[in-house]
């Protein structure tokens, strides 16, 4: 009897389910704490920062779990999902202050573990190349985001509790999918004895490249997080409504869903460019997008900038874990996929706070200039490090 193992179709299904569920909750977190629970925006910001730290801790722990005990990765994943599902279930009945903040913390900690183990399992799937696997994962996640954010408005009009109920149902279904279908891929167990003996280490030259890419990812997420925080205030100061700001994220979702297959066909199948060059192009688009913000004073300019930044997102976000997968060895897949999640979460945690400090002490133009410099310098850093350390990749 053939040993059961995770198939790409079920990995994509699980990614879609959890993306829809998460997208029901994160758009309302700040609004719920401020408008429903009566907490200040500062308090909400602190809660979000602490939750980012919980996500980082979970991501690191998930990577370590996978590397140390990959045979039982499915069990660890089930445990992490159970923690998140339990937290969301309790939110249905206990959603006052400060219980809401505590349960949200547990949800994010479990989510951090689950995301990293899920990405680590993806590295063992050989039905497609790692480039294709992570592109497809990213695509399904964003389809889930589009559907989830569209459902939020409908559910809130019924009752805020329906957000928590729906989230619980989806997470419980995700737990079932993992229990039924998420068996560790055979490729993830190859050379296990070598990995256990510590003889399967990532070459130092590749570690340098991975480190540079992680720094770039931190810079990109630091800049991108401005769109989810300080840019809303900036647009409002220019007389652009909150509704119009929210519509930018609808545009973001549809550009990803429609644009990613086209870009992948062009760059991967027709031009066949290397992953690392795809990363360079994506980060350059982020720099260009923030450069256009220096001149954006009306809504059409913000739409144009969002489209440019979204194209950069399409090229960089799925490419980074794929490049890291290609450069890391079997015994350290979890370690480096965990690092990808950690550096991304660090950028999202520090970005809004750093952006707020820059705006309070200077101006929005200074914020955009700093982000351009940060992403531009780290892009050049990756190019230089990769040039010296990558030979055949």
TrEMBL record:
Question: Which top-rank group of organisms is this from?
Answer: Bacteria
Q: Where is the Major facilitator superfamily (MFS) profile domain?
A: 7-390
Q: Does the keyword DNA repair apply?
A: no
Molecular function (GO) terms listed? transmembrane transporter activity
Q: Quote the subcellular location field of this record.
A: Cell membrane
Tell me the Pfam families matching this sequence: MFS_1
* The keyword Transcription regulation is assigned to this record: no
* GO cellular component terms given for this protein: plasma membrane
Which InterPro entries does the entry mention? Answer: MFS (IPR011701), MFS_dom (IPR020846), MFS_trans_sf (IPR036259), MFS_Transporters (IPR050171)
By its UniProt entry, which PROSITE patterns does this protein fall under? MFS
Q: Which CDD domains match?
A: MFS_MdtH_MDR_like (cd17329)
Name of the molecule in the record: MFS transporter
UniProt source species: Ligilactobacillus murinus
């Amino acid at each position: 009897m053939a040993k059961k193992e995770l198939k790409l179709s079920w990995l994509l299904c699980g990614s879609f389910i959890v993306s829809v569920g998460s997208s029901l909750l994160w758009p309302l977190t700040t609004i719920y704490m401020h408008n429903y629970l009566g907490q200040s925006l500062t308090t909400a910001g602190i809660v979000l920062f602490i939750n980012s730290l919980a996500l980082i801790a979970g991501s690191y722990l998930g990577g370590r779990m996978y590397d140390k005990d990959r045979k039982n990765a499915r069990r660890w994943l089930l445990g992490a999902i159970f923690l998140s599902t339990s937290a969301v279930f309790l939110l249905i009945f206990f959603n006052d202050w400060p219980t809401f903040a505590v349960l949200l913390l547990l949800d994010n900690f479990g989510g951090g573990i689950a995301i990293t183990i899920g990405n680590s399992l993806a590295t063992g799937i050989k039905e497609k190349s790692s480039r294709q696997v992570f592109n497809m994962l990213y695509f399904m996640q964003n389809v889930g985001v589009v559907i989830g954010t569209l459902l939020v408005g409908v559910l809130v009009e019924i009752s805020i509790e329906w957000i928590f109920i729906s989230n619980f149902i989806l997470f419980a279904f995700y737990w079932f999918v993992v229990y039924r279908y998420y068996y560790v891929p055979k490729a993830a167990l190859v050379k296990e004895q070598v990995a256990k003996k510590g003889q399967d280490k990532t070459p130092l030259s590749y570690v340098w490249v991975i480190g540079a890419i992680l720094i770039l990812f931190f810079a990109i997420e630091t800049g991108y997080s401005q769109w989810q925080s300080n840019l809303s205030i900036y647009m409002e100061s220019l007389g652009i409504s909150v509704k119009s700001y929210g519509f930018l994220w609808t545009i973001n979702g549809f550009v990803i869903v429609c644009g990613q297959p086209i870009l992948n066909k062009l760059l991967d199948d027709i031009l066949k460019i290397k992953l690392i060059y795809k990363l360079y192009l994506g980060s350059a688009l982020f720099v260009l997008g923030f450069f256009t913000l220096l001149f954006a004073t009306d809504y059409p300019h913000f739409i144009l900038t969002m489209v440019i930044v979204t194209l950069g997102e399409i090229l960089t976000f799925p490419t980074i874990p794929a490049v890291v997968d290609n450069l890391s060895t079997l015994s350290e897949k979890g370690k480096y996929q965990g690092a990808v999640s950690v550096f991304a979460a660090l950028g999202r945690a520090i970005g809004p706070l750093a952006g707020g400090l820059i705006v309070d002490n200077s101006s929005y133009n200074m914020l955009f200039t700093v982000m351009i410099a940060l992403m531009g310098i780290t892009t050049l850093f990756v190019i230089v490090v990769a040039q010296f350390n990558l030979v055949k990749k």
